């Protein structure tokens, strides 16, 4: 039997083959999408574990650093005149606001939140500067000042870190499916 003598497949057989091929292709694309999402999750999981370890180490270091800052700040407040101590406190809170602005945190936040942060920082600055200006320099006030300042500083880094976390759709799979659809459309137009 020659090539010309072979029976031609029926339209139903061809349609069945086409549907079978489309189903296989869809399964392959789905498997690729699952794999891509799995890789993204594995990478994200690794990043989260690294964040957690770094966070624990920073917490331990902060305890030691806090003790140093509290004692140093208390000694500074006792030596400096009250006006100079109050100026230092206000300058520290202004520096935190400047960091928020420098990292672009205000641009990503709603206006109400931005105004709230500015008002909170201003109230904290006044709340710490006034007692120090009046000559009140207890150790707990220095400790509270350092604690609040560190929390505000941590907020700057959290806002910046959030902007770097990106989880989205499997873009390679989507691009591949679009290519498959375009290929199928071209094939259908020719046929």
Break the fold down into its secondary structure elements and pairings.
Blueprint: H1 11-79, H2 82-102, H3 105-108, H4 111-133, H5 139-162, H6 171-190
Helix pairs in contact: 1-5, 1-6, 2-4, 2-5
SSE ordering: HHHHHH
Radius of gyration: 32 Å
Number of helices: 6
Mean pLDDT: 76
Structural class label: mainly alpha
* Amount of helix: over 70%
What share of residues are in beta strands?
A: under 5%
In brief:
The chain is mainly alpha-helical and 191 residues long. Helix content is 84%, strand content 0%. The chain is built from six helices and no strands.
Provide an overview of this structure.
- The protein is mainly alpha-helical.
- The protein is 84% helix and 0% strand.
- The longest helix has 69 residues, at 11-79.
- The model has no long low-confidence stretch (mean pLDDT 76).
Key traits:
single chain; 191 residues; 0% strand; mainly alpha
């Amino acid at each position: 039997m020659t090539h010309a003598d072979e029976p031609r497949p029926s339209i139903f057989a061809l349609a069945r083959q086409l549907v079978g091929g489309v189903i296989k292709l869809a399964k392959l694309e789905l498997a690729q999408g699952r794999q891509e999402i799995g890789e993204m999750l594995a990478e994200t999981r690794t990043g989260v574990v690294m964040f957690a370890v770094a966070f624990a180490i920073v917490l331990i270091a902060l305890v030691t650093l806090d003790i140093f800052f509290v004692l140093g700040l208390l000694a500074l407040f006792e030596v400096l005149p009250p006006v100079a101590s109050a100026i230092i406190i206000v300058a520290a809170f202004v520096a935190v606001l400047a960091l928020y602005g420098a990292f672009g945190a205000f641009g990503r936040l709603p206006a109400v939140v931005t105004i709230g942060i500015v008002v909170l920082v201003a109230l904290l600055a006044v709340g710490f500067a006034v007692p120090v200006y009046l000559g009140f320099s207890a150790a707990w006030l220095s400790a509270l000042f350092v604690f609040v300042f560190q929390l505000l500083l941590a907020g700057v880094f959290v806002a910046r870190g959030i902007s770097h976390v990106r989880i989205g759709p499997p873009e390679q799979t989507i691009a591949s499916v679009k290519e498959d659809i375009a290929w199928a459309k071209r094939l259908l137009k020719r046929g």
